[in-house]
Structure formats: structure tokens, C-alpha cells
Specification:
Blueprint (H helix, E strand, L loop, with lengths): L2 H7 L3 H25 L3 H6 L2 E2 L2 E2 L2 H23 L2 H21 L5 H22 L12
Length: 141
């Protein structure tokens, strides 16, 4: 088997991880979009409350930081070196899973999207965990 064949067979984990984070991010966005369509949700936001929580600057800052994780992981998955990349993907997935489960709604549409997001992030954890350094030697430039 030639080096080009091996290169073709070995997936570029950086690209796959980055793409998985895009998938997670899109699911998060659409979960929120459907949430806005839920009867009474927008009226609640207009009064300063969302599902019983007061919307404060600190709440929005926490939400912004937590939603920034998948966004930044799209880039970091592509640029970080192997050992750092593995651990950052694992840690970012664990933190985001806690956010999705702990900070989410119990509405059916959200539970659906959250289950997809969590399954994808569990796959990211496994995929990063099983990523071995020697795989990179087959990459061509």
C-alpha cells in the first residue's frame, strides 16, 4: 500500500473534531430557535424572565461563555497540537454536556436536541480519547 493510500485511509481527526463541534453548535442554535416559537416564551423574555429565571447581565454572561465553547472548539480543534487538542476536546465536551443537561429546558423539542448534542459530545470524548499520535505520521501536506 502506498503512502497516498494510507493518507487517504487515515481520517484527519482535527477536521472531524471541528466538524462535530459545528454539528453540536447547529443543534444548540436550533434548540433555541424552536424554544422562541414555544407559546408564551417571547412574552416571558419581554418581561425579563425565561422559564422562571430572571434574565440578568450575569446570566447572559454565563450563557455567552458557555455557548462560546463550541464556537471556539471549531477553531481550536483545527489548530492545537495533538496532545493539547485531545485534552481540550475532552474537557470542552464535559463542560458543555453539564451545561446542556443542567441549563436546559424540559420541553420535548429541547430534550430531543439535547440528546443529540450529548450523544455527539460523548462521541467527541471517545474520538479524542482514542486519537493516537502515530496517526498523524500518515498525513500528507
Amino acid at each position: 500500500m502506498s503512502m497516498n493510500s494510507k493518507t487517504y485511509l487515515v481520517q484527519d481527526r482535527k477536521t472531524v473534531l471541528s466538524t462535530l463541534w459545528i454539528f453540536v453548535m447547529l443543534n444548540m442554535i436550533f434548540a433555541d430557535i424552536y424554544g422562541f416559537m414555544y407559546p408564551g416564551f417571547l412574552q416571558g423574555i419581554m418581561t425579563g424572565y425565561a422559564e422562571g429565571l430572571e434574565i440578568t447581565g450575569n446570566l447572559l454572561l454565563i450563557a455567552a461563555v458557555m455557548t462560546e465553547i463550541p464556537i471556539v472548539m471549531v477553531l481550536l480543534s483545527r489548530v492545537l497540537s495533538h496532545p493539547i487538542n485531545r485534552w481540550v476536546n475532552i474537557m470542552a465536551s464535559v463542560i458543555t454536556i453539564v451545561f446542556v443537561i443542567g441549563g436546559g429546558s424540559t420541553k420535548p423539542h429541547y430534550l430531543f436536541f439535547a440528546s443529540i448534542e450529548v450523544a455527539c459530545m460523548l462521541f467527541i470524548i471517545w474520538y479524542a480519547w482514542t486519537w493516537r499520535k502515530h496517526e498523524q505520521q500518515f498525513k500528507s501536506s
